[in-house]
Design brief:
CATH class: Alpha Beta
Shape: globular
Low-confidence stretches: none
Mean pLDDT: 97
Number of strands: 8
Distance between the termini: 10 Å
Radius of gyration: 17 Å
Strand order of the largest sheet: 2-1-3-8-7-4-5-6
Order of helices and strands: EHEHHHHEHEHEEHEHEH
Structural class: alpha/beta
Number of helices: 10
CATH architecture: 3-Layer(aba) Sandwich
Number of domains: 1
CATH superfamily: Histone deacetylase domain
Length: about 300
């Protein structure tokens, strides 16, 4: 299994910033220490080129992010102060997603220890998302005739409004988002299938609705899957408003990954959100997805 990382690109954030930037390196270390993956499976994410970014983003926005001449309101909505490191890290996130997708085509499953930046739109970012890694990678696969029909299964607690705004009219792509009804983004961009769950939803309700969503995905008959495996539905997550357990999240992963394995559909994993207190709980939940992946795919 090829797994891509970009945690060596760090951001100069103030000490009181609410985003847990350390979780990316913590996850990589956890996966190795607990022998869930091997060092040989890890690969450094390359930087996506501007040409690649233009598959999903406007030239004006890309250059603004590269040079720092980005509108102050966009930076405010992104939630990170601008720096060239932010641009580089965002390019690496996309590069990792693209390499993971190409590896999944060869080996059926691959992962990116970043990404799932589903709030980034064509001309702006928001919600800690600068460039939309899944949108770029999906368009790359279609443009280069590497696959025919792509399903995005987005189980982050926050609706993938950027995925929908960029890809909604791409006929080769089906977007399924299951998320918190009363959570960010408060103005949602409709996906092909949205299932909005009430605050406080637990394992049983979540998994029941996931089955409904997967049944609709199956009707689309995808030849490739991007899995946004955000762990912010975890009950300890400070931004999640849901009540899932580790066991519930692992059952979620097993349902998605088993569907891909049994139908021989290549699947690429994107990290998505995780903001638990303490952050070690999010790291363990992310790692559990890889535990399930190893068990399902052998």
């Amino acid at each position: 299994m090829h797994i891509y990382f970009s945690d060596h690109y760090t951001l100069p954030l103030p000490d009181d910033h609410r985003f847990p930037m350390t979780k990316y390196r913590m996850l990589r270390d956890y996966l190795i220490k607990n022998e869930i993956i091997t060092q040989q499976e890890l690969h450094e994410s390359p930087l996506a080129t501007e040409e690649i970014l233009r598959l999903a983003h406007t030239e004006e926005y890309i250059q603004a992010m590269r040079t720092g001449k980005v509108d102050v309101q966009i930076i405010k909505r992104i939630g990170f102060p601008w720096s060239f490191q932010l641009y580089q890290r965002s390019c690496a996130t996309v590069g990792g997603a693209l390499e993971s997708a190409k590896s999944a085509l060869k080996h059926q499953i691959a992962g990116n220890l970043a990404g799932g930046t589903h709030h980034a739109h064509a001309d702006r970012g928001e919600g800690y998302c600068v460039f939309n890694d899944i949108a770029v990678a999906a368009r790359y696969l279609i443009k280069n005739n590497l696959t025919k029909k792509i399903a995005i299964i987005d189980l982050d607690v926050h609706q993938g409004n950027g995925n929908s705004s960029i890809l909604k009219n791409d006929p080769e792509i089906f977007i399924f988002s299951m998320h918190g009804e009363k959570n960010y983004p408060f103005v949602k961009v409709p996906s092909h299938l949205d299932i909005a769950l009430p605050s406080g939803a637990g394992d049983e309700l979540f998994l029941k609705n996931l089955k409904i969503g997967l049944d609709e995905v199956k009707k689309f008959k995808p030849t490739f899957i991007f899995y946004q495996m955000g762990v912010d539905p975890l009950k300890e997550d400070k931004l999640g408003l849901m009540n899932l357990t580790f066991e519930g999240l692992m059952k979620r992963d097993e349902m998605v990954l088993s569907y891909a394995k049994e139908n021989q559909i290549p699947i690429s994993l994107a990290l998505g959100g995780g903001y638990a207190i303490p952050i070690e709980l999010s790291v363990e939940a992310y790692a559990n997805t890889y535990r399930v992946a190893k068990r399902v795919f052998g």
